Amino acid sequence: MEPEKKAVVVTGFGPFGEHAVNSSWVAVQELEKMGLGEGVDLHVYEVPVEYQTVQRLIPALWKKHCPELVVHVGVSGMATTVTLEKCGHNVGYRGLDNCLFCPGSHCCVDGGPECIDSIIDMDAVCERVTASGLDVAVTISKDAGRYLCDFTYYTSLYQSRGRSAFVHVPPLGKPYSGEQLGRALQAIIEEMLDILEQMGEKINGRHEH
Prior knowledge:
With 209 residues, the chain is of the alpha/beta class. The chain has a single domain (6-202), classed as 3-Layer(aba) Sandwich (Aminopeptidase), CATH 3.40.630. The protein is 36% helix and 21% strand. Strands 2-1-3-8-4-7 form a 6-stranded mixed beta sheet, sandwiched between helices. It has a two-stranded antiparallel ribbon with strand order 5-6.
């Protein structure tokens, strides 16, 4: 019998503001072309920049695919590196989305913890990817920006008990191409899966769902 394939869900965002082409979705489409190897079923989704859609969509993706890992990718106009976000924040959402909507409570989950960390050691991922000689700089951040990126990350971390990741990418050509960003995502996600597998083996070799 062939070992079961692991499901991995990767999302990018649609256009918003000055980002008529969102580099996060371009990068995710490049990743989809390359794939994550034989053992992984990769599912990609373009997420509209809308709070209410995110609140509906993220739990639905977890339910549909029961993924090993969900990685959300977003663009940051200020980023010049590929940035691994360590945590998502619950409160402080005041920016209007593409529907000119903003959560009345300014938070993701009423009564949820202020901050949720990913269970993945982002420092380790960063070190490993950097050591692999990738032509893209990778850095770490603890602030995903209190807009839809952060909102999506928190929603996903809350849903998955920390089994999610968020990667910020710079706009296209500043300085990387879509293909370079796709390759960087591939390297990053492979390391994340490797780390999750090692963690699973430590916890008695079985994944409890």
